[in-house]
Amino acid sequence: MNPSLKNREPVLIANRGEIAIRIARTAKALGFPTVAVYSEADRFGEHVRYCDQAFFIGAAEPKESYLNVEKVLNAAKLAGAKYIHPGYGFLSERPHFADACREAGITFVGPSAESMRLMGDKITARRTIDELGLPRVPGSPGAVKNGEEAARFAEKIGYPILHKAAAGGGGKGMRRVDSEKEIVSAFDAASRESLSAFGDGSMYVEKLILEPHHVEIQVFGDGKGKAIHLGERECSIQRRHQKVWEETPAPILNTHPKTRHAMFEAAIKIAENVNYAGAGTLEFIVDSEGNFYFLEMNTRLQVEHPVTEWVTGCDLVSMQLLLATGELTFGGKALETPDRKGASVEVRLYAEDPTNFLPAPGAVARIHFPTGPFVRVDTAITEAGEVSMHYDPMIAKISVWGQTREEAIGRMRVALDETRVEPPKKRDGSKKGSLKTNLDFLRKLVRHPDVLAGDTATDLIARNKDLTEVMSQEETAKQLTVEEAVAISLHQLLLEQSVLGEPASTTGSANDSSPWKIISRREGVRS
Q: Which one of 19, 227, 249, 516 has the lowest number of neighbouring Cβ atoms within 10 Å?
């Protein structure tokens, strides 16, 4: 029987934004009624409208809503939900939440609490890796109490080091430290950030290996000691310790194929050792010689999972849900290691200042995403709205597939050129509000010689300052033909009337109505 034809019990999605919509989309296709939860800030969120039911769970601050176990479980009980899918972030890697779901008679769509304690906690994971005899990055064996204790470990392993959150990921609760004089203040700042984001301020110290490649292996386990891999993703292009470009196959492993095979074996060994259930990711760093070192395990669905889905043809969320219902078992075709075909690239479109990568959320007047063959957009913003100041400022994930890396990058270049994110405008056409995006940065990145050559070590952005330079109005104008400039100018006049509710200005100096100025205003992230 086709699983999509079954009558199923509801699944509550304990998350927000694009990942909540992405999970709900697959859940609906499989016949699961979907339940959303939302905070005060997300009252009009797209994921609230998309799901079959929605329950308010509290104030905008995460600890009052999306991190509040009691409120999430109360919503699940009111909805009659049999399953809870945590998405990524928030409660997704919290073993006490998985325990609470089990105690409430609700199936947690993810690994067991025991597996999370072994691998989701970064400190315990390092001990597990040591027991398995696998290489890992040098650092403290456990949590450090304060900056002074961190300094003692740093003296042993040498600077630079990283303060890292034991319970976190995504760059939150992480600080680079280059000398003893900054280690205490950096520790305190990282611990506060981790406590706010994850409800846990525990920190550990890790040696910062310079100019490595960041490569991760996607695994899927049955929870009974069997696991498969679904290939690798290279996520080396990062800013503020957060990924902005992910791809598969990994360019660094194309030059070290034996390393790829060894990493697959290591990832499966780890997953099977902890009886891992569902989708998880083993993160490693790889040096220029092909040596690899364990970093951490993400015991959840990764943000960048679409690139794996592109090359394998697998729906990882479908696999998660069907494993939770007991319909997906090893030995069946769905859980054989899948063949991988072609190449995929994903970029993250953020509301942030492209010159320093600091969050710059705000109102969106108009948004347009690319379409076409082998182009995918994961987003929760499809029309005029707002990027919330309360949460991660990601606007969308844009991913593409190609038969080769070159074809995929070419398709991404076109996709980014088609993308538009427009803030509100004043009557004179100037930008209104705080919104900025990294769209121009991504357009530069997809054309950069180092990226095209696959030279994508983690220092790529730092060593190429031109990537964060903002184009002048003249440079922006030169990239457009006269026909494009005229079309954009006309579009801007219509936008003022239809979107902003303001009449198109028919007065003003010739300089004010210059098509080049209108172009630069429309392409605010370029100017």
A: 516
